[in-house]
Amino acid sequence: MSGDPFDEGGGSILRQPKAVWATAGASVVAFMGIGLVDPVLPSIAKGLEATPSQVSLLFTSYFLITAVAMLVTGFVSSRIGGKKTLLAGLALVVIFAALSGTSGSVGELVGFRAGWGLGNALFVSTSLAVIVGAAAGGSAAAILLYESALGLGMACGPLLGAVLGDASWRFPFFGTAILMAIGFIAITLFLKEQPKPARKTSLLDPVKALGHGGLASAAASAFFYNYAFFTVLAFTPFVLNMSPYRSGAVFFAWGVLLAVFSVLVAPKLQERFGSLRVLGGSLVLMAIDLVLLGYGNHTMAVAGTIVSGAFIGLNNTVYTELALGVSNAPRPVASAGYNFVRWFAAAAAPFLAPKIEEWTDIHMPFLVAACAAVVGAAIVGVRRKSLTMEAEELLPEHDREDAATPAGAAQPVS
């Protein structure tokens, strides 16, 4: 990996076709939707007279549907094509984001977020493959663009949620619907239909791909990491107990660190220390940070939340590359199987963290999350050999890119 992440193959990755920018722009908004509700979670609980554990189901329903949908996205995109899959996903997000803003009860909102999760899965699972197929500069440049979109979306989501949510908790949902509608129009205008693959993806292909020891190890480690990640994202707003603006500022700073460490710092650390050392070390440091976040005072909780963005950024980049390169399965299939496993943790953490608090105290959810991060690091250490890419086990790079481009790679990050 080049030491300069913005100089791939002798040219700037910023010189891209309109189709790439349209897809990347819509990806930013899609990732904004993940953290959009963070600053307004307490406001939603108050407005709908719901408990923190009930409101946290907004994440659980969203990611549970996303996990299951990972088995479907490749099946769909390999039959109707990348562009139609993107547009179908965007249309569902527009509809269910708008409906979320009209919710009269927390049950309705949780249900609408599930529909939103299906749309988001269809979109983000296909967007990486579309960017890989249309980007100038090869797959490395495409992955970097995708990671940049993720970081920017994660940073701006809480900020938009805070600005709109200060007036009403409903406005962030309407704002997302409008932005995704703009993305729908941009992709309709600028993206040409992607060629369909020679072989259609079956529903069981992603599960079969997990038979590869390296991919199964990456998925297992990412499962525990995602539990820690989404404990921070879904439970911390209740612990901070701040106004939408203040909470939005905290998570904006968190998202900026996530973006910087994902796109700029991770490649340099990987080049110097190797991917697995960076991942294992980052997971251990994240565990320490979670303990300080959970057991420190309010100022330490704010600082710990922000600093966690750095470790999450590092982890996201390394896990992305492991998911896409550790096995000999085509990228869309390997990535779908990997995400099928790890998104279940993203669904579990928002539900379990408030429950653990109810059963014990406010500190214990963070201790459990820290333990999960340590387990993730332990899997990386124990399974180091299977996680090391062996060139003779892999398809040639151009074959892997060809396999990935038409079918739609399942979203391999965060």
Quick recap of the structure?
This is MFS transporter. By secondary structure, the chain is an all-alpha fold.
Q: Strands, helices and their partners?
A:
Layout: E1 7-8, E2 11-12, H1 18-35, H2 41-47, H3 52-55, H4 57-80, H5 82-101, H6 106-134, H7 138-165, H8 171-190, H9 205-209, H10 213-240, H11 244-273, H12 275-295, H13 298-325, H14 331-359, H15 364-382, H16 384-387, H17 397-407
Antiparallel strand pairs: 1-2
Helix pairs in contact: 1-6, 1-7, 1-8, 4-5, 4-6, 4-14, 5-6, 5-8, 6-7, 6-17, 7-8, 7-11, 10-13, 10-14, 10-15, 11-12, 11-13, 12-13, 12-15, 14-15
Membrane topology: Multi-pass membrane protein
Protein name: MFS transporter
Domain Major facilitator superfamily (MFS) profile: 19-388
- Structural class determined from secondary elements: mainly alpha
Spatial order of the strands forming the largest sheet:
1-2
What helical percentage do the residues reach?
Answer: over 70%
Assigned CATH class: Mainly Alpha
What order do the helices and strands follow?
EEHHHHHHHHHHHHHHHHH
Transmembrane segments: 19-37, 57-78, 85-102, 114-136, 143-165, 171-191, 212-235, 247-266, 278-295, 362-382
Keywords: Membrane, Transmembrane, Transmembrane helix
Protein name: MFS transporter
Main location: membrane
